[in-house]
Amino acid sequence: MRFKMLRKYVPIFDWGQTYDRTAFGNDMIAAVIVTIMLIPQSLAYALLAGLPPEAGLYASIAPIILYAIFGTSRALAVGPVAVVSLMTAAAVGNIAETGTMGYALAALTLAALSGAILLAMGVFKLGFLANFLSHPVIAGFITASGMIIAASQLKHILGVDAGGHNLWEIVTSLIAHIPETNQTTLIIGICATGFLFWVRKGLKPTLRKLGLGVRMADVLTKAGPVFAVFATTAATWYLGLADKGVKIVGEVPQSLPPLTMPDFSPGLMADLLVPAILISVIGFVESISVAQTLAAKRRQRINPDQELIGLGAANIGAAFTGGYPVTGGFARSVVNFDAGAQTPAAGAFTAVGLAIAAVALTPLVYFLPKATLAATIIVAVLSLVDFSILKTSWQYSKADFIAVLATILLTLGLGVEVGVTAGVVLSIGLFLYKTSRPHIAEVGLVPDTQHFRNILRHKVITHPSVLTIRIDESLYFANARYLEDYLYDRVVGCKNLKHVVLMCSAVNEIDLSALESLEAINHRLEEMGISLHMSEVKGPVMDRLKKTHFLDELTGEVFLSQFEAVSKLTDGQVAETPPSTEPKIKLV
Amino acid sequence: MRFKMLRKYVPIFDWGQTYDRTAFGNDMIAAVIVTIMLIPQSLAYALLAGLPPEAGLYASIAPIILYAIFGTSRALAVGPVAVVSLMTAAAVGNIAETGTMGYALAALTLAALSGAILLAMGVFKLGFLANFLSHPVIAGFITASGMIIAASQLKHILGVDAGGHNLWEIVTSLIAHIPETNQTTLIIGICATGFLFWVRKGLKPTLRKLGLGVRMADVLTKAGPVFAVFATTAATWYLGLADKGVKIVGEVPQSLPPLTMPDFSPGLMADLLVPAILISVIGFVESISVAQTLAAKRRQRINPDQELIGLGAANIGAAFTGGYPVTGGFARSVVNFDAGAQTPAAGAFTAVGLAIAAVALTPLVYFLPKATLAATIIVAVLSLVDFSILKTSWQYSKADFIAVLATILLTLGLGVEVGVTAGVVLSIGLFLYKTSRPHIAEVGLVPDTQHFRNILRHKVITHPSVLTIRIDESLYFANARYLEDYLYDRVVGCKNLKHVVLMCSAVNEIDLSALESLEAINHRLEEMGISLHMSEVKGPVMDRLKKTHFLDELTGEVFLSQFEAVSKLTDGQVAETPPSTEPKIKLV
């Protein structure tokens, strides 16, 4: 029993029991491939976050191991990712200068806070909160972030000191600094970017044509950035380009991840709380989307609340080992999956690989130009930029379009935090607005059936003494008054009207405010000599109404079905007589 | 045409055309009664707002006239009210010391801002925003505000200098000051309070027993506060009680409302913006509730957006004539209505009466003890305190209960602004939470009908190859994933399952996120050899789906009715054969 609990909360005890030689082999191969890909990526994302390059390596080691212990996805690779690195730069940049001790310390605090928030969300099963980020808002946010990231890296390609937190600031700062462009750096940057784009688009088909196997072509393609790193580093060293003003990575300590202590001063924590919440939620959404996509391909299941715990542990690990906020990355996870990773052990092996790199290989990147890292980032993030969501949402739903457009514009114009917050608030606001003015249809009987539909859309039978209103929304405080107003306007001047039937097939809840409105409607209609009936009230709604006096006071009845209601209220006239032979019945 | 526009936006041109002698007579009588009642009330509410007594009179003059011109309610009386006075004190008290010039100036700015917000809401037809204050939250807020107001007035009854913005602060401050109690003040205060309670509860029956008519008894009862004011003022003057430490109103300038200019400095406006929004919304909700209740009694209609314009004009009037934020008050409007007011002209006559009082009668209140005014307020607001909403909401809906409890506790503990904001946020949050995990029912055919209901609640017919799921909620971003998870869990291990039908009678919208989920569900079920169908999709939802590729990719069909869907998918087995004679059919 206790072991079962342990397996539930520490999944390693689950898959660890059946771990065998085949799985080990597959995991090892995946780990080698991912490690090679991760070395330049980790250095590059640290640069994006405004941190020293080794922070990227450190952020990939302990977090991967902790996720392997606590996470549920078998293929997710946890570490620095582009969007979270950008958000880290934005949050910490408000507090300390890039390159200072305070900056690195604040990044640790951000990781610790973010880890604590993720853990708390997992323990209290609050994973559903991430659902309030709608798909279009996420798509818009990722696209806009990709553009900001790409723009922010152009300064490394030009070799100038530009800055800015939003697209406008970045672009104007870049333009102002163009005269200072270092031409050698620019050449390296353009070559690296061009090469990497070609690797992405053209290399794989070329290799396939040359007769390589699918797998091998794939591995070589993924290793493209490593070639770029190798070639530009060698050129910089051999030609002494660092003396010509090409900025290089420089000395990186040769060390395992250090033990670090985040700064837990209350003032700093208060400043970082909102960014930490946003990073946690965005990171979780990115991670869970990747994990679920990959799990679905192998018919495995992901437990979102356990994922929160895994990601929380990974971030806390990052905080205490010189890293910064991490999450499950899309690119690295797909590589891991394609490379055949079977269990989270693949992640642990990757961590070992990166630890070896941190100890042994860092001197090799001394002459690595920052322009190459910037090129790696630009090529990676531009694949995230996709404006098709604007077209899709415009065609499908204007509310979704407004939310995505606002997210993109505000992210570009005011930064990532404002952008994503506005997207969420706007999505929720538009949903509330729609539910506050529900669609209300007057319905009639579809001939030869027992089915009722909108009189404006279908040929249906109605009766002048019975008005049936179908409310296409739950009744709650925001729309209670709307229904009242609609009904009073509708019944005024209907002389023959004797019965109003509220068809409640779409009413999933009636809250206390709406109940008070229904009481008012019942009372007001009674004064006009009209009885109020209800039909197709759902079980949970009916249970609740039974607790009140409303059903006693209701002037009419509650019918199981709309057909029953109309049959009885019209003495079978609507239900049994064909419309064409009976003048009393109006065919709409 | 132009005159019609004018009549729409300036309703006085509407009712003014048919104004006659009878209406004039009725309005005059109502005005006299309301004026008598308003004099002590206006002074008292100014005291509550922390302003000099004349501010209460001024706030009743121009606003009443402006509302008479722009408002639509025929009985609403606009002026200072208890809750808005308390909110003014809370907002302005954060900015300036009571009794200073800055305090009075900030109150003018608050009225101007509030007026501008109300006007803007009216022009942009944003009156629906007030619907997001649910009935239980309003009830809880009014109850808690009543308690705070009553507690805040106890210092005047004791004759001490206590303070505080929430119940806890007020009570502890009062207890600390008890030793300084002025006994003469206390006697006046207790007598006045006792007398006013008796007037409220016991006077009317007594007068009726003495043979007075209903109307006369009513007028005398409403004039109770005037008797209390008269008696205590006379006693204070005659016995020289001011020298014994009884605090009196003192000198009130004899003047018409002065022309004043609010302070429009940006810093102050920024500080007062949030309180102004809250005051506007709360004031509007109070006012519109009263106006609609009274209009319903005479079968008149209120136009909420025009009401916003009327209240906005009234507040701007208050800002420029030495007043402070105003709204349509419950007590005064009911008196106005009961006294027979027929048109907004009654309000204008009341304004004339109050102007005469401001010019001629203010010396008479020199010796009026503040304790009497406090007694007036206490007796008025305690009638607002009503905890029955806690019981009602507890029995009916736990979500409503949580919202009302939080509103009451936070208003009492942290003040009016936090309380009402928390109530609104919590109501919306709980609504979103509920819609994010919708009720999902598996349905079957009710025998001998074409009607489908929940298999857990009704005796229905189902078929092993067809699973029908009724989703009791619109599908949108917050619950899209929930439906996916539910369906995958449900279909796993159903070997004979061939068709899944989503019965969409309660689905009022499918947003882009949900559409993507449906596409994923369709695709996943297809891989399992199950087709996905939909039934009873509503017109507006279907219109939108037709714009996408979803219907082309759907493995199944879209049926007009659930009955049609099941009849076709089971080759009529479910629909035509009685359940008892056919073993293939499962009766649940």
* Biggest interface, chains and residue tallies: A-B, 65 and 65 residues
Question: What's the story with the biggest beta sheet of chain A?
Answer: 6 strands, mixed
- Class inferred from helices and paired strands of chain A: mainly alpha
Distance between the termini of chain A: 66 Å
Query: Helical content of chain A, roughly?
Result: 55-70%
Characterize the quaternary organization of these chains.
Answer: homodimer
Strand order of the largest sheet of chain A: 4-3-6-7-8-9
| Number of continuous helical runs of chain A | 25
Taken together, the total number of domains of chain A comes to 2
- Strand coverage percent of chain A: 5-15%
Rg result of chain A: 31 Å
Mean pLDDT of chain A: 85
Overall morphology of chain A: elongated
Poorly predicted ranges of chain A? 576-588
What does it look like?
Two copies of one chain form a homodimer. Chain A is mostly helical. Chain A has two domains: 22-400, no CATH class; 440-587, Transcription Regulator spoIIAA (2-Layer Sandwich), CATH 3.30.750. In chain A, 63% of the residues lie in helices and 6% in strands. The first copy, chain A, is built from 25 helices and ten strands. The first copy, chain A, has helices at residues 2-9, 12-15, 21-48, 53-70, 82-93, 101-123, 135-158, 167-177, 183-209, 214-222, 224-239, 266-297, 304-320, 330-338, 345-361, 370-382, 388-396, 398-414, 416-436, 477-491, 512-527, 539-545, 550-553, 562-569, 573-576, and strands at residues 78-79, 327-328, 440-445, 452-454, 461-462, 466-471, 499-503, 531-535, 558-559, 586-587. The first copy, chain A, has a six-stranded mixed beta sheet with strand order 4-3-6-7-8-9. A two-stranded antiparallel sheet of chain A has the order 1-2. Chain A has a two-stranded antiparallel sheet with strand order 5-10. In chain A, helix 21 (512-527) links the parallel strand 7 and strand 8 (531-535). The model of chain A is unreliable at 576-588 (pLDDT under 50). The interface between A and B is large, with 65 and 65 residues. Chains A, B: InterPro entries: SLC26A/SulP_dom, SLC26A/SulP_fam, STAS_dom, STAS_dom_sf. Chains A, B: This is STAS domain-containing protein. Chains A, B: It is a multi-pass membrane protein. Chains A, B: The chain crosses the membrane at residues 28-49, 102-124, 136-154, 174-199, 219-239, 272-296, 308-326, 346-366, 373-390, 402-433. Chains A, B: Keywords: Membrane, Transmembrane, Transmembrane helix.
